[in-house]
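Researcher: Here's a chain I'd like modeled. Treat it as a single chain, no partners, no ligands.
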Amino acid sequence: GDGARLIHDCQSSDLTISQFLNLRSIDLAPFGFMMDVFHFGGSYLSLAISLPIKRAKEMTTGHIIELEAIFESERPLKTLARLNIKHGPNVEQIIREFSQAEKLCSVGFDLGYLMLNENRIKEVWLDLIFEAPQMNQIKIRDLTFYRRPRAEF
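Model: Modeled as a single isolated chain. Structure tokens:
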């Protein structure tokens, strides 16, 4: 759809992307996303996913954004999640690394540490950054975002 973009700096690559049907009983999403990466000569490969602007404008520094993901890859793959929040002309970013040992991974983004102008939020997106993706098949079976309030003591 319009909310996802594949971004890289590779001049010459062998890369295919496809959608597949999730048939397992534990899969909540009806479809998954798959990349077959063969030759890749670039320095980064990123899947950028836009979050709905209506929900993005409701974010405050009093929230924690959680991301749960179900990944599979043929070989171990270092994967980073970067939350980007554009407010006015500025973009705040938080980067977290997913555990390579688990298929079901979770990362949290605490917005309380950002210098965020909550009234000027224009766009929020997530970058899934795959390091050294060559000769690997990467499946994203599900991505779930949720927001919760920070605890106040």
